[in-house]
Amino acid sequence: MFLRFFGRTLALVTLAVFPLFSQTGTRQTPPLLAAAAPESVGMYSERLNRLDGMIQSYIDKGAFPGVTAIVVRNGKIVYYKAFGKADLESNKPLEKEAIYRIASMTKAITSLAVMMLHEEGKIMLDDPISKYIPEFAKPVVLDQFNPKDSSFTTIPAKQEVSVRHLLSHMSGINYNVISSDERIKAIYAKAGILDAFTTDTHKIGDNIKKLAKLPLNHQPGEKWTYGLSVDVLGYLVEVVSKMPLDQYFQKHIFEPLGMKDTYFYLPDSKKGRLVPLYSEDKEKKLVKVDKLYLTTNPNYPTEGAKTYFSGGGGLSSTAYDYAVFLQMLLNGGVYNGKRLLSRKGVELFTNANQSGTLFPDPRSYFSLGFRVTNEAGRASDLGSVGTFSWGGAFSTHYFADPKENISGVIMKQMWGTSYGGEIERKFDMMIYQALDN
Questions:
Q1: Residue 135 lies in a domain
Q2: What CATH number is associated with residue 154?
Q3: Does 24 fall in a domain?
Q4: What per-residue confidence (pLDDT) applies to 293?
Q5: How confident is the model at residue 160 (pLDDT cuts 50, 70, 90)?
Q6: Peptide bond preceding 362 in cis form (omega within 30 of 0)
Q7: Among 193-197, 229-233, 342-346, 371-375, whose mean pLDDT is lowest?
Q8: Residue 219: exposed, middle, or buried by beta-carbon count in 10 A (0-12, 13-18, 19+)?
Q9: Cβ–Cβ contacts within 10 Å for residue 371, how many?
C-alpha cells in the first residue's frame, strides 16, 4: 500500500516537475523583438506619440537633418520611427533602417565580450592587463611635464592596471585628441596614439602596445578618467580569443543575437544606408562634415584600409540592432535562444558600482560598462535607480531600465551641436511619462 502510494506520489511529482522545467526553459528563451500596441505592455499610445512633435520641432528649426528613435517595453517594440532627411543635399528621406556611426556605444559591446570571456574562465577581472599584454608591466604615472618639448618624468604606479580598472575607466589611461589634460594630449600626440579609428593601414595591437609604454594620467583605481581603456580591452579580446575583434564580434555576439547591420566596416551592399555626418557652421547652419573626427576621410567606415578595429568607438549600427543588444541585457543575458551572459554576470556588468563616488556626475556611478542612475539621479527626474545608459560622440544615445523593463535608442549624426544632450534628456523623460503600469 505504501509502495503504491509512494509510486503514485512520485509520478505526480514527476509530472509537476517536468512542466516546471519546461516553463523555466520558456522564460529563458524570450521571443524576438516584435511590434505591439503600447497599451498591450502598459503604455499610453497618445502620450508616447508626444515624441513625434518633440523630435520634429528640432528638425524644423534645423538642429539635425534627421532622427531615428526606437522604444521597447517588455520585449515589444512600441515606438519605431524615422524623421527628417538622411542627406540634405540630395533631399533623401531618412529610413528607420539607416546605419549610424555609433562611436562610444561600441564600448558596451566590447565590454560584453570581455565579460563573456570572463565567464569562460579565460579572463579574471582583477588580473593585471600585463598578464595578457606584457607591454603594460611596471606601469608609471605622470609626474612632471615640460610643455616646451613634451618631455616628462614619472613615478612608479602603486599597482598594475587590472581588467576591472579598464572596464570601469579607472585605469588612468586617457584619450588623445579629446583629452582635457593638455599634458597627456601632447604626450599621446608625440607618440602617435590613435583615439578611435582610422582609414590608414594601422592595427589596434600596434596602437595599444605604444600606449602601454606611456605614463598613466593618475594612479590606477584613484580617479575616473574617460579614455582608451576599452580600446585596450578590444585588443585583450583579440589576444585571448586569438581572433580579430571584428570576427569575434560577428561569431560570438552579432550572429547569435541576429544583429545583421552592425559592423566595423560596412559591406558594399549596405554603404548606401550610412547616414552622412553633419555639423554646424558659424551661423549654426547644418553643413556636411568634410573631415571626419580623428581621420581625414569623411567616408569612414566605408572606405580606407579597414584594418583598425577600435573597441572603444569603431562600430556602426542601426537603432533596431542596438535595441536587440539592450534587450538581451534586460532579458538577463539571453536573446534569440542564445545565452551570452549569465544573469549574475549581467547584474555585475550593468549595475555593480565600480567607481564609488569618483564618477563626475553625482546622480550616477559607473559599472563595468555603463553609467548607472543612483538614488540622486532618480530623484532628479522620472527614471529609475539602476537604469544604465551611454552615448556616442556623433549624437547617438541609449538607456535601459531593468525595473521598468524598458529601453530607448535615439540616433542622429552630428559632430558638434548647440543642442548637445538636449533632445536625449527629453527623449528619456517622455518615454517614462507614457508609462501606465
A1: yes
A2: 1.20.58
A3: no
A4: 55
A5: very high
A6: no
A7: 193-197
A8: middle
A9: 20
**Alpha carbons 354 and 131: distance in angstroms, whole number:** 22
Of 67, 44, 46, nearest to 56 by C-alpha is 67
Q: Are 286 and 413 in contact (CB under 8 A)?
A: no
Shared domain for 39 and 185, answered yes or no, is no
Q: Are residues 379 and 407 in the same domain?
A: yes
Asked if residue 11 belongs to a domain, the reply is no
For residue 50, what are the CA distances in angstroms to 55, 70, 192, 323, 431?
Answer: 9, 14, 47, 21, 9
Q: Work out how many domains the chain is built from and give that number.
A: 2
In a shared domain, residues 352 and 256 = yes
User: How many percent of the chain have pLDDT more than 90?
Assistant: 84
Residues 343 and 264 in one domain: yes
CB atoms within 10 A of CB 289: 16
Query: What rounded mean pLDDT belongs to the chain?
Result: 92
In angstroms and rounded to an integer, the radius of gyration of the C-alpha atoms of the chain is 23
Distance CA 346, CA 388 (A): 11
Residues 266 and 362 in one domain: yes
Rounded to an integer, what is the distance from CA 422 to the centroid of its chain? 20
| Same domain assignment for residues 311 and 373 | yes
Domain that holds residue 129: 122-238
Residues 418 and 273 in one domain: yes
CA-based nearest residue to 83, from 94, 70, 91: 94
292 and 421 in a single domain? The answer is yes
**Contact status, residue 392 vs residue 399, Cβ threshold 8 Å:** no
Cell of 49: 506619440
- Residue 194's φ and ψ, nearest 5 degrees, are -90, 145
Instruction: Name the amino acid, one letter, at 240.
Output: V
pLDDT the model gives residue 417: 85
pTM of the model: 0.92
Per DSSP, the residues of 94-110 read PPTT-BEE-GGGHHHHH
Q: Which amino acid is at 64?
A: F
Residues in the chain: 437
Query: Which amino acid, one-letter code, is at 234?
Result: G
Q: What would the DSSP string read from start to end of 121-152?
A: TS--TTSBGGGTSGGGSS-EEEEEEETTTTEE
Do the Cβ atoms of 408 and 398 come closer than 8 Å?
A: yes
